[in-house]
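The instructor's notes for this session suggest beginning with a concrete chain rather than abstract definitions. Hand out the sequence below and ask the class to guess, before any prediction is shown, which regions might be ordered.
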Amino acid sequence: MPRLAMTTMMLGTAMAAAGCARDAETGSIVAGGRTAIAAMRTATGADVGRATATEVAGGVRFTLDARGLPPGTHGAHVHTVGRCDAPDFTTAGGHWNPSARQHGSMNPQGSHTGDLPNLIVGADGRGTLGITIAGATMDAMLDADGATMMVHAAADDLRTDPSGNSGGRIACGVFQPG
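After discussion, reveal the predicted structure:
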């Protein structure tokens, strides 16, 4: 095997191994880790999916499996209050932000703990996302007033405080310990 090809292969293997080692530290399953589930609903009560928060090493893993939503890009966030009162879900409060930072992963003064990537919904009304938020805890999220998963009408620009210009709230689910 030529020397350059061998070096490239060894470097790739080392990088892959380093990535696996890092993943084993933050985001790996925790024995006895807690889970919370949120049934996602529209303001009219239609079932549009499920969100899950799972305690993992070094943080909390959030997943969102949506269906029946308008196609396009939608902001998705964890909000501070465990209430989803129609018609506009404002009872869910603002984004989960225990560190009092600015909104968005692209904001040099951000981001909120509850800032998640945009949810991309296909023409079939389905979309999924998953992310581990390092440093987040189930205790902080499931405090006395709870928490919600929120889907917004428009894309999150990932930088504008307080909500990334992501528009109205179109789906909400209250996290319940699972």
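Then share the key points. The chain has two domains: 1-30, 35-177. Strands lie at 35-41, 47-56, 59-66, 72-74, 76-79, 119-121, 127-134, 148-152, 169-174, 176-177.
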